[in-house]
Design brief:
- The chain is of the alpha/beta class and 358 residues long.
- The chain folds into three domains: 87 residues, Beta-grasp domain (Ubiquitin-like (UB roll), Roll); 93 residues, Elongation Factor Tu (Ef-tu), domain 3 (Beta Barrel); 143 residues, Nucleotide-binding domain of ferredoxin-NADP reductase (FNR) module (Rossmann fold).
- Helix content is 19%, strand content 31%.
- The strands form four sheets. Strands 11-10-13-8-9-12 form a six-stranded antiparallel β-sheet, with no helix packed on it. Strands 17-16-15-14-18-19 form a six-stranded parallel β-sheet, sandwiched between helices.
- Strand 1 and strand 2 form a beta hairpin.
- Helix 6 runs parallel beside helix 7.
- The longest helix is centred in the middle third of the chain and has 15 residues.
- The radius of gyration is 20 Å and the shape is globular.
- Bound molecules: flavin-adenine dinucleotide (FAD) and FE2/S2 (inorganic) cluster.
- The site of flavin-adenine dinucleotide has 27 residues, from strand 11, strand 12, helix 3 and helix 8.
Length: 358
């Protein structure tokens, strides 16, 4: 049987049990101790914490996310570190006022929808055996047939609790995508996943206009946020929604603008919502260019907004820069970088950016 060790999380003094084959972050999140994390795959450095006592296995930590010098000083990445004996860590436990964080749990379900919604993009809807609580913007880890897992953002809204919708882009030679979701997975199949994860979630209490900025399948968590705003608008007991929401969807080719009509219909029906498709590599029926460039044109001054950016790391970084140039401060910008195994291996766009909030 796999051995279990005690993890003590300071400064809380909380003690919890963690298996030798389980990451310390996973044990914490399942026990309601909310350590900061983003990629959960040793790539971004968000979960870095100090190991005060006890031996650990450092796991598959990217050398770009955890430098040798940091390791020598006692730091480790909690999302890939596993205990070898009882361990004491000093964690930056996050508690945000007005936000309920839900412990991570395992879920099983059945594939209900698996549609090609754009070239090399699939909508996967899993009907869950038990409902999941999460905040709009968070993600799940989808378990692969080989026992590994991959993070995918949830596009459905928290009030649609018994299903999760994912938007998955095919990666050439990708184990999860080219090797399974696009080749073998079928409607009716049983799947398992865990969640909810991540600190990229909607803060409805901030009461400001929203900029929702996504590229490719980076649109997924923004759709969850948009649906949540629509639910707030329709909530008869609440004060409704009074702020402008502008959503950009950046794609290379026009046929990548999935669900375009759905967004346009929402925009036509509501004066607070604007949908701005952005096509970068061909002439199109609409505006041509990358999201950061179009954003800079439209918002020479972006102060007063709250921005949520999601997609490939290069787009996220460039969009972050465009927003800061337009005088939006980092405290008003939330980002989700879709890091993959290549980013973990080569460190591209990872961690050292002063613009990444850690
Ligand atoms: C928080 C988060 C949320 C995400 N949400 C979404 C989402 O909603 N939708 C979505 O489409 N994607 C999302 N992603 C990306 C997703 O998790 C996967 O990384 C992506 O689907 C690729 O998985 P794969 O198994 O197909 O590819 P992998 O097999 O993991 O390979 C990915 C790439 O890395 C290369 N590679 C593999 N191993 C190495 C190595 N050792 N050295 C160098 N290169 C290597 C491969 O050739 C390939 O190009 C998200 C990522 C994160 C971190
Ligand atoms: S969450 Fe651990 S490195 Fe990204």
């Amino acid at each position: 049987m796999t051995e279990t060790h005690t993890i003590t999380v300071e400064p809380l003094g909380t003690e919890l049990q963690c298996r030798e084959d389980q990451s310390i972050l996973d044990a914490c999140l399942r026990n309601g101790v909310w350590l900061p994390h983003a990629c959960t795959h040793g790539t971004c450095g968000t979960c870095k914490a100090e190991v005060l006592e006890g031996a650990i296995d450092y796991g598959d930590a990217s050398p770009y996310a955890l430098l040798e010098s940091e390791r020598a000083e006692g730091a480790a990445l909690m999302c890939v570190a596993t205990p070898r004996e009882d361990v004491v860590i000093e964690g930056d436990v996050e508690i945000e006022e007005g936000i309920t964080m839900y412990p991570v749990r395992d879920f099983s379900g059945t594939v209900e929808v698996l549609d090609e919604i754009a070239p090399d993009v699939r909508r996967l809807i899993v009907k869950l055996d038990e409902p999941m609580d999460f905040n709009a913007g968070q993600y799940v880890q989808l378990n692969l047939p080989d026992g590994d897992n991959r993070p995918y953002s949830i596009a459905s809204a928290p009030h649609e609790r018994d299903r999760v919708e994912l938007h998955i882009k095919r990666t050439e030679n990708g184990v999860a995508t080219a090797g399974w979701v696009f080749d073998g997975l079928a409607v009716g199949d049983a799947v398992t996943l865990s969640g909810p994860y991540g600190k990229f979630y909607f803060r409805p209490g901030r009461e400001k206009p929203l900029l929702l900025l996504g590229s490719g399948t980076g649109l997924a968590p923004l759709v969850s946020i948009l649906k949540t705003v629509m639910a707030i608008e329709d909530d008869e007991d609440g004060d409704g929604w009074e702020h402008e929401v502008v959503m950009y969807h950046g794609v290379a080719l026009e046929n990548g603008l999935y669900d375009r009509q759905w967004f346009q219909d929402i925009a036509d029906e509501r004066d607070w919502f604007t949908y701005r498709p952005a096509v970068s590599r061909e002439e199109c029926d609409g505006r041509q260019g990358r999201v950061p460039a179009l954003l800079a044109e439209d918002f020479p001054r972006a102060g007063g907004n709250v921005a949520y950016i999601c997609g490939n790391p290069a787009m996220v970084e460039d969009t972050m820069r465009a927003l800061m140039k337009a005088r939006l401060f980092p405290r008003d910008i939330y980002r989700e970088d879709f890091f993959d195994a290549a980013d973990r291996a080569n460190g591209a766009h990872v961690v050292r950016s002063p613009l990444i909030k850690r």
